[in-house]
Amino acid sequence: MNEKKIMLGNDAIARGAYEAGVKVSAAYPGTPSTEISENIIKYPEIYAEWAPNEKVACEVAIGASMSGVRALASMKHVGVNVASDPLFTASYIGVNGGFVLVAADDPGLYSSQNEQDSRSVARTAQIPVLEPSDSAEAKEFTKLAFELSEKYDTPMMLRITTRLAHSQGVVELCPREEVADKPYERNAAKNVMMPGNAKMRHLFVEKRLKDMAEDACSMAINKAVYNDTKIGVITSGIPYQYVKEVLPNASILKLGLVHPLPKKLIEEFASKVETLYIVEELEPVIEEQVKSWGIKAIGKEIFTVQGEYSANMLRKAILKQELALEEAAKVPARPPILCPGCPHRSVFSVLNKLGIHAAGDIGCYTLGAVAPLNVVDTTVCMGASISTLHGMEKAKGRDFIKNWVAVIGDSTFLHTGVNSLMNMVYNKATGTVMILDNSTTGMTGHQDHAATGKTLMGEPTHSINLVKLCEAIGVKSITVVDAFATGELEEVIKRELEKEEVSVIIAQAPCALLKTNISTHKCVVKADACKKCGMCLKPGCPAMKKGEDGTVVIDETMCNGCSLCMQKCKFGAIERVEK
Q1: Is 236 in a helix, a strand, or coil?
Q2: Chain segment 241-282, per-residue pLDDT in tens
């Protein structure tokens, strides 16, 4: 009998890739998908890497598939946008070894800049989609995705959400399937997507989806359970769990393959129930198709297109049951904040003092937009800080951006910021770019990247030199400064903003939470010297607060001695001492 283990959904997907005989995995870290790759490295049979961005990760997996092995690419929903260029064409090419892309959507925007539904992307790309509803299915659907990929000559999308990625369930561990490599055969008509070849492959894709839709009616992962036929529900993924809880006696059609839809199976199910509901998070992807077939159903008329669903939401929408006030969870608000000792806080405190606006990017440093720092004015997507600053200058002229900088992290700079900086130099911009180099991909849990000197597998490797990279692009003015040297940083920023050329400031200091960044000092307040002016509190360090008498108090369990508060104090009331 096989061992059973409680696993996160992401862990289960990694296990599924292992059992499916996957040999190559590529990803860029992005919550809620990050732990897939972090768990894959437990299996030495799989080569796994962090790629600079999701487009590259997708292309690595496509190349591995073309060569004849099973390959996985993992990313969050906005990463699918970055990967869409190769993904849409890979749909036409198909596969040799199986190719599966895991798209982790984030209903509720727990760690994202938008809510989007990757099923809609897959429909446009004409790629089939599997959607598991628990950890056990996450593992099994991953394995099935590779089987279907090879059977139908198609990339497959495994669509998950934050709730599945980060919830736990019982998973049965099975042996690894040693899948023989497919022989590589040169086939330009299939693998070279010039217009003439692509026209023929498009015909194949249309037939492939039609065949899958017909076969889906008999697939075990699409199953109808008939109970009380007064209410019937079509659902998939995590919402299935809520439907089971709220409507235990209802008839349910649970879909595992959500694109293409099993039309005949849906029509049969709909004909046997009196009132049909379609329960799906985010966009009405299933609902719109079902209604287009002339089937009467209730969906987004009563359900929201925003955020996560819950059992209580379904009770209210379907059963008209209001949640009693005393039953409602009373959870105190916990807004996100930069950690004590974060080098980004130091940089933003200087920008705030100088009255500088920042075109922001995706990372921990996006929190520079909120009080008390209030520096970041814009955030669009990975790498956009540099491009938006450039666009502002070209729209309004140099005078407009004299008190603006673009801020971007080291990992994000390598993700897509490099291209934006190239564009600034090429098109004769004059803006100042600040690379906040904290030696990690901090936002998603401290993953390595191309400038840290370590691979995902923990092996030492060449470390990209950011200074030399900027020089190679053509930037003439590059300054490296300690992020906590606030006086020097202030002078560097003022100096660089005066230059009528592209300039780069690299503010370096390791993330406070890195295991290698061991704190040996702490800051302490000399109460008798404290003037209670509050200047040291302005950067908003969570380790600091005012005591009952107005004197500043530092929580030594949180303080790592970064000295930012000490530099803010003009009265010598704070000193840095060894722990």
Answers
A1: strand
A2: 999 999 999 999 999 999 999 999 999 999 999 999 999 999
Nearest-angstrom CA–CA distance, 410 and 449: 9
| Contact indicator for 403, 435 with CB cutoff of 8 Å | no
Q: In this structure, how many other beta carbons lie within 10 angstroms of the beta carbon of residue 304?
A: 13
392: CB partners within 8 A, 6+ apart: 359, 400, 401, 404
Give the Cα separation of 368 and 42 in Å (integer).
36
Which of 506, 439, 450, 459 lies closest to 479 in space, CA to CA? 506
pLDDT tens column, 329-376: 667 777 788 999 999 999 999 999 999 999 999 999 999 999 999 999
Residue 531 three-state SS: coil
pLDDT tens across 365-422, in order?
A: 999 999 999 999 999 999 999 999 999 999 999 999 999 999 999 999 999 999 999 9
What pairing do the DSSP bridges indicate for beta strands 257-259 and 129-130?
A: antiparallel
Strands 257-259 and 503-508, how do they pair? unpaired
- Whether pTM exceeds 0.85: yes
Residue 177 Cα distances to 112, 152, 171, 240, 565, angstroms: 36, 20, 17, 30, 57
Which residue reads 């916990």 in tokens? 334
What is each CA distance from 112 to 109, 117, 200, 379, 472, in whole angstroms? 5, 13, 38, 11, 32
Residues 6+ apart with CB under 8 A from 426: 474
d(CA 44, CA 61): 17
Maximum separation of any 2 CA atoms in the chain, in Å? 82
Please choose, from the candidates 510, 539, 562, the residue with its C-alpha nearest in 3D space to the C-alpha of residue 345. 539
Write the DSSP assignment of 141-160 as a string of letters: HHHHHHHHHHHTT--EEEEE
DSSP 60-81: HHHHHHHHTS-EEEEEEHHHHH
**pLDDT score of 326 more than 60:** no
At 186, give phi and psi (nearest 5°).
-65, 125
